Amino acid sequence: MSRHVVARTDELADGERKIVEIEGRSIGLFRVGDAWYAVRNTCPHQSGPLCRGYLTGLLESDGPGEFRYSRRGEMLRCPWHGWEFDLRTGQSWVDPTRLRVRHYETTVEPGSALLTGTPPVAPGQRVPGPYTAETYEVSVDHDYVVIEF
Amino acid sequence: MSAPTDARTEQSAPPTTGAVDVDVHHDLAAVEELFPYLDAHWRDYVVERGLPGFDTNYYPQASPMSVRPDLLRPDGPPPATDPATVAADVLDRTGSSTAILNCLYGVQPMQNEYLAAALSSALNDWQRERWLAVDPRLRASIVVPTQNAELAAREIDRTAADGAFVQVLMFVRDRMQLGKRFFWPIYEAAERHGLPIAVHPFGSFNHPNTPAGWASTYIEEYVAQAQLFHAQVVSIVCQGVLARFPELRFVLLESGASWLPPLMWRFDKDWKGLRHDTPWVDRAPSDLIRRHFRLATAPLDVEGPDGLLRLIDQLGSDEMLLYSSDYPHHHHDPGVGSVLGLPDDLRQKVLSGNARALYPLDRGGHR
User: Fold this and answer.
1) d(C-alpha B333, C-alpha B343), whole Å
2) E-strand spans in B67-222?
3) Do the chains contact at A82 and B274, CB–CB below 8 Å?
4) Is A85 on the interface with B (CB under 8 A)?
5) What are the residues facing A37 on neighbouring strands?
6) What are phi and psi of A73, to 5 degrees?
7) Out of B244, B272, B274, closest to residue A63 by CB
8) pLDDT band at residue B264, thresholds of 50, 70 and 90?
9) Do B240 and A64 touch (CB under 8 A)?
């Protein structure tokens, strides 16, 4: 499993998205409230750019003329043919047992944790040279969104 | 009218032993036949206005394909007007065990809904006394004034109780699409009594006779019937009739069936993207169609038993087709040979099993 830092949490407001490229895969990152969802940007129907579609709600009905609209902003509708997918699970609304789009686990982690997570240089591997380059302080004040797969 | 031959064209057809023939037509020889069943006001109304009757001429008698040539007898009664002759033709000579009569008298096209309601009641009483009472193998569809769905529902309630009537007859062309709420009281009553709704070609002249508009010629109207059925299936599914009346069934008469599988395929595809219009359609339209719709075989629009097998495969159900002769009409192919050429289990289903599963044929002492 590899982990990929894809965004700072303050980059996206509620309802916004960002499409990132990881190891050749196009993946949509969505912020819904304080939740983060990552979905493969390929519709399982005809490979349309799913993550560029409308974010809509779940529309259900208790009978003709009745509209029950919930989970606003959590259903992704492919821009090509309108097939709907649940951002939380990647499952298609139609034919859910057969159709789903790949979705990925996301976590939000503080930058400091990500830095500490970097493996230290093993002693003896490298010897400090005679020069010192100009350095900048790396910010670890923010939280970052990490996709795992 | 050309001289008919006495040769019974259907007599040489192989027997349909035990079949339930779901589409047989009967007719009035004259409007006066209804007088015993009309109250005095409406009887006088017809007489005082000099109304000649309400024949719609959906099937001009001398037109090719309207009437089996052997039934056109210049010296005899008009075709399909004598119960004993009809029973002999559709039951005794074929081996069929039950025939369902569908009356095409022109009630639905008229503007006066109260006259239509009076005529509907008269026709149903006429059917009961003149036809159903004389031969227990005959059943009939309830004629209803679709101009006024409340009156139509009342007529269903009045008529359905004793089991002689096994469905409600509507037409593919009415004042509006059949899925509309306007008609729901009819569906509610039909479901309450466990009766399917039969939909027959032709109907009201208050709507163009093709989906694209008014046809100029009979052939255009005739050929376009299946397109009207196409539109009505979509309307009935999308408007939520099947969601609201989950036990209701529709029987599409005399419209072929080969047009339905492509519609089902396309309907499913489009529903996946457009279901937000009608969220009460909560499953694939093709599933709903398989469950709720049945189709009569005559006139068959596929070739031979192999064509019929392919059609059943494409429909994805062997429970949808119901055998019919469409007596006395004379289309290109009644499909008898194709049905009889099916493998045993399928033949049995199409000839009688599917109809027996659908219709309340054993109610009220009728068999």
Assistant:
1) 20
2) 98-101, 138-143, 165-173, 197-203
3) yes
4) no
5) A30
6) 85, 5
7) B244
8) very high
9) yes
Q: Which two tokens stand for residue A86?
A: 């649940």
The better pLDDT of the pair B167, B5 is held by: B167
ipTM of the complex: 0.82
Residue B1 pLDDT greater than 50, yes or no: no
Task: Indicate yes or no: CB of B244 within 8 angstroms of CB of A82.
Answer: no
Q: Give the percent of chain A with pLDDT over 70.
A: 81
B273 touches chain A (CB under 8 A): yes
Q: Which of A74, A102, A78, A98 is nearest to A88 (CA)?
A: A74
> How many C-alpha atoms does B319 have within 13 Å on its Cβ side?
12
Letter string b/e over residues A128-147, b meaning 16 or more CB atoms within 10 A of that residue's CB: eeeeeeeeeeeeeeebbbbb
* Greatest alpha-carbon span in chain A: 79
Q: At residue B68, does pLDDT exceed 90? A: no
pLDDT band at A129 (very low <50, low <70, confident <90, very high): low
- Asked if A70 is an interface residue toward chain B (Cβ–Cβ < 8 A), one would say no
Pairwise CB contact (< 8 Å): B276 & A59: yes
Cis ω before B299 (30° cut-off from 0): yes
Chain A positions touching B282 (Cβ under 8 A) are: 60-61
Assess A124–B contact: CB distance below 8 Å, yes or no: no
Task: Kindly state the tokens that stand for B80.
Answer: 């399909």
What is the C-alpha separation between B121 and B143, in angstroms, rounded?
8
Q: Are B197 and B187 in contact (CB under 8 A)?
A: yes
Nearest-5° Cα angle at B51, B138 to B111: 80
Least confident of A99-108, B110-119, B245-254: A99-108
Residue B175's φ and ψ, nearest 5 degrees, are -70, -25
Contacting residues for B144 by C-beta, under 8 A, at least 6 apart: B120, B151, B152, B155, B156, B168, B169, B170, B186
C-alpha radius of gyration, chain A, whole number: 20
The total of other beta-carbon atoms located within 10 Å of residue B326's CB is 23
Q: Round to whole Å and give the CA distance between B261 and B267.
A: 10
- Other Cβ atoms closer than 10 A to B365: 9
Q: Does A46 touch chain B (CB under 8 A)?
A: no
Encoded tokens for B320: 């949808």
H-helix segments, chain B: 40-49, 83-87, 113-126, 149-160, 184-192, 218-223, 225-238, 241-244, 260-274, 285-292, 304-315, 336-340, 344-348, 354-358
